[in-house]
Specification:
This is Response regulator transcription factor. It comes from Nitratidesulfovibrio liaohensis. Keywords: DNA-binding, Phosphoprotein, Transcription, Transcription regulation. InterPro entries: CheY-like_superfamily, NreC/VraR/RcsB-like_REC, Sig_transdc_resp-reg_C-effctor, Sig_transdc_resp-reg_receiver, Tscrpt_reg_LuxR_C, WalR-like. The chain is of the alpha/beta class and 236 residues long. It contains 10 helices and 6 strands, in the order E-H-E-H-E-H-E-H-E-H-E-H-H-H-H-H. Strands 2-1-3-4-5-6 form a 6-stranded parallel beta sheet, with helices on both faces. Strand 1, helix 1 and strand 2 form a beta-alpha-beta unit. Helix 7 packs across helix 10 and helix 8 crosses helix 9. It is globular and about 50 Å long. It starts with a strand and ends with a helix.
């Protein structure tokens, strides 16, 4: 198993390695680490080597961590990425998940939270901490207030412009544009193969977007997806 840690502070990288080494060897005794200090270096390493998890700082000296995240996910949507940030603000959280993050924790988090986040993501889940959940609640409230009384067929944000339409609220605010498009098409009865053809993606990639979206929405099957779609007017 191989992790990539992207942070321009050596002491932070060392601390993460020490924390992770305390528990990951139980499930991966062969764990190794790659380290990057810039976005450019991270992208080069990610292109050369398959990583089981990338731990990515949101503030890098040469580029935004969010932009780097988007690049990493564009090149490989199944690549697991955990965002590490000094920022608690809801806009960073929402943008991180819309860009494909599999988890988001702050650098002030306890080691136990890092452990839980890493474990959950390695199991294929999305990690949303209580701090992140609170930020999302704030963001959703602001969006619903901001969209009240404004025009536009979708209440504000276009479905393929970086996120989901206003009004869905809660965890749905975390959906990326592609995740939204996939579940909207699924809700309309399209198959994974049909969606892959329309979106010019592989069936495996479409399935990845579907799985991620349903996990974020806490939906476990097609029937629940259809009920969610009807309740919220999910559409293309």
């Amino acid at each position: 198993m191989r992790f990539l840690i992207v942070d321009d502070h050596a002491v932070v990288r060392k601390g993460i390695i020490e924390i992770v080494h305390d528990f990951v060897p139980d499930i991966a005794p062969d764990l190794t680490f790659d380290e990057a200090t810039t976005a450019a270096e991270a992208l080069r390493l990610a292109a050369r080597q398959r990583h089981d998890l990338i731990l990515l700082d949101i503030s890098l000296p040469d580029d935004s961590g969010l932009a780097t995240l988007a690049r990493l996910k564009e090149e490989d949507p199944e690549r697991p990425v955990l965002i590490l940030s000094v920022h608690r603000e809801d806009e960073y959280v929402v943008h991180a998940f819309r860009n494909g993050a599999d988890g988001y924790i702050t650098k002030s988090s306890a080691p136990e939270e890092l452990r839980e986040a890493v474990t959950r993501i390695l199991e294929g889940d999305v990690y949303i901490s209580p701090t992140v959940a609170a930020a999302l609640a704030t963001a959703a409230t602001g969006r619903m207030r901001g969209s009240a009384g404004h025009g536009g067929a979708d209440g504000g944000m276009p479905p393929y412009g970086g996120g989901v339409p206003n009004g869905l609220g809660g965890l749905a605010a975390l959906l990326s544009a592609r995740e939204y498009e996939v579940i909207a098409r699924l809700a309309q009865g399209a198959t994974v193969a049909e969606i892959a053809r329309v979106m010019n993606l592989s069936g495996k990639t479409v399935s990845t977007y579907k799985t991620r979206a349903m996990r974020k929405l806490n939906i476990t099957n097609q029937a629940e997806l259809l009920r969610f779609a009807m309740r919220h007017g999910l559409s293309m």
